[in-house]
Fold this protein.
Amino acid sequence: MSGRTLSVVENGDGEAAREIPGAQALRRGLSLLDIVAESDKPLRFVEIAEQSGLSKPTAHRMLATLVEAGLLRVDERDQTYRLGFRLFRMAHRVWNEFDLRGAASPELARLADLTGEAVRLAVLDDTSVLYIDQRDSAQAVRLGLGVGARVAAHASGAGKAIVAHLDPQHRQTMVSRLGLERFTPNTIVDPVEFARELELTKGRGYAVSFGEQHADISSVAAPIFDHRAIAIGAIAIVGPSYRMGVDRLHALGRDAIEAARRVSGNVGQLAMSISINPRPLGPERDDLRCAVPSACFLGEGPVWSAADKRLLFVDILAPSVILADPESGQFVSKPMPELIGAAVPRARGGYLAATQTGFKTFDWSSDTITSVANPEAGKPGNRFNDGKCDRRGRFWAGTLAITTSPGEGALYRLDPDGSVATMGKGFHISNGLGWSPDDKRFYFADSGTRRIYVYDFDIDSGDIANRRVFVQLPENAGIPDGMTVDAEGFVWSAHWDGWCVTRYDPDGKVDRVVTLPVPRPTSCCFGGPDLSTLYITTARIRMSQRQLAEAPLSGGVFALRAGVRGQADTPFAG
Ligand code: ZN
């Protein structure tokens, strides 16, 4: 429904308040839909007609129309009416929108804190901007418009940010429909000037509105992309014009971009699987417990730090590094200034991290972070994901496009002398890695293709060769994420959205499936004094309230008595 139609209905003046022709029929049709939707069992025609109170001919005509429209369907086996597949498609779209809200939620809160202004999440609904979420900071003046409000796309920062990033053809069509109505002296109403404004917006990566909708309100906004790199929404920082001068608006542009990128990362990564498989009925296990109640957005990259006698892992989206004592469940986290894919201890003390902008070293107690190398400096749309050291202390880590467009990821090896080697290219979503106990094999997961690859590995030279598919996961089994290789040479792989960790034998055959009480395990490693416990990190990002209620321990770290020992994690030797 377009904004225009809505405003007529809501107008409430004499004209619109009168019954619109067909409205009664529509109401009756919807009541039939309700009857079918709310019934515990499939209903036959006679039962529906009876419940609706409509005459049989009327009920019959309306049901036929609903079937024709795809909103209902008839099960031929027993002549009962069921909900139609069109509703399924519609529901998916609604789900996607809420998914976006879930993905953006931590960023909205962070930006509101950071800027002291109101922060809004917007989508384009036909030609207007619809606010679907908002966070107010303590000092924000109350703004007139809240969640559910609509504004003209051409006069709002969010609207310009989205429209500027549409594909050229779509953008042209959209611009021709916008109407460019004037609201304030600052509103851009000239089509040529507006086209220039969109180019500028695209170049900068963010849009500004200098009191273009309301003279006393200004905003800056950046687009959020889905996994196909299509602009699906925007994050806007909105405040009173007297506080949002030109300089400040542009300074806030970077914050908006950064936040929107993070959300795009969430959307992209998780858009790989829109629905979560239902919780499988596994045995209640007494060999499994939630060891660290860390409630991570996206817990990842666990390694056992022998020096700390602690489990080290990251929350990619907090972003933070976490040191945990899995015996007591106590943990400390260190906030990081950018997305962090993995962190490992260094042999000389301190830690090495794979971040959005390359390899960095840091100490727990200081705020100083030192850049070591950034092999993808020329690809600001990429970030590092999982990483781990081989037995000689070389650090291996892969990348992915934050929009998760395929083929953009690469695998790198950081040697102790600080030099970087490119070990592979063209991956979709670089993920978990591991080595066989005899150092003859290297395993590497590409989550985008649901594959784990195996390579021949040369421990002396650090070379890999002869890539082949070790495991190809079927579509409904989740996505292979992080992994570890145990002392017997079997591979433990965490299955995102699969509610399980699977152990594969060296031929890639399933040896054991360990069912978990959470849907999104992300990675695993062996730890503890004798390396006999498998620690499993998990995520809670973008799970709905209902899903979280079903899996409340999501985001925690689980400990499994595996019955087999792991290999010790090697610190970075540089
Ligand atoms: Zn991962």
Notes: Residues 1-17, 268-275 have pLDDT under 50 and may be disordered. The CA atoms of residues 38 and 133 lie 29 Å apart. The first strand starts at residue 43 and ends at 44. Residues 300, 385-386, 431-432, 481-482, 522-523 surround zinc ion (CB under 6 Å).
